Amino acid sequence: MNNVDKKQQIIDVAIKLFATQGYENTPISIICEQSKVSKGLVFHHFKNKDGLLREVFLRMAQIIEGVGDNADLVNEDLTAKDRLVSHLDKIFLSMTSAEHKLYYQFDFQVLCQPALRVLLKDLFDERYKLMMESFQSILRDIPSASSFVDSHMLIAELDGIALNYLFAEDDYPLEEIKQRFIGKYILLLGL
């Protein structure tokens, strides 16, 4: 395994451990043990544990940004309504991914720890900005929409749905929620 693969392996293990055990309860030694790398290699790639945390968060942001980018690239010729529905479909689909579920768990862990929120504030702000831009680029083309307010509403509601899904039992009706959620916005926006 080359150096880049080992770095990614460290990040993947850190995501899993930070999501399931929490950042504070995950020593570097456990990350090294489960990644099958030395502490020296971890500190070669990351200045310290906080540096690893930032890399983990950046990886999450790339995935989230990818959802928006894919929606925009694939749907350039669609109506605003179809772009919105497609974008929401992709977001809901990403929630069902086992890998993404770990990201949501990790995100929740970070949000519940004020010191970590401060440490990652710039990254949280950047991620929120990207999410806002992805919705606003669609909503600007809908005359009845208030792109700024409606984007905030969409993000807040999606965060709430993701949080509930994260802690739900196996019978959480995510597909039905998705359909009603999309239907609600189509109605609200007069589409």
Q: What features would you describe in this structure?
A:
With 191 residues, the chain is an all-alpha fold. It has one domain: Tetracycline Repressor, domain 2, CATH 1.10.357.10. The protein has helices spanning 3-21, 28-35, 39-45, 49-74, 80-96, 98-111, 114-119, 121-139, 147-167, 174-188. Helix 8 packs across helix 9 (147-167). The longest helix has 26 residues, at 49-74. The radius of gyration is 18 Å and the shape is elongated.
Summarize the structure.
The chain has 191 residues and is mostly helical. 80% of the residues lie in helices and 0% in strands. Helix 1 (3-21) packs across helix 4, helix 5 (80-96) runs antiparallel to helix 10 and helix 8 crosses helix 9 (147-167).
What fraction of residues sit in β-strands? under 5%
CATH class: Mainly Alpha
Radius of gyration: 18 Å
Order of helices and strands: HHHHHHHHHH
How many helix segments? 10
How many DSSP E strands? 0
* Overall tally of domains: 1
| Average pLDDT for all residues | 86
The largest β sheet comes out as: none
Give the low-pLDDT segments. Answer: none
Q: Roughly what percent helix?
A: over 70%
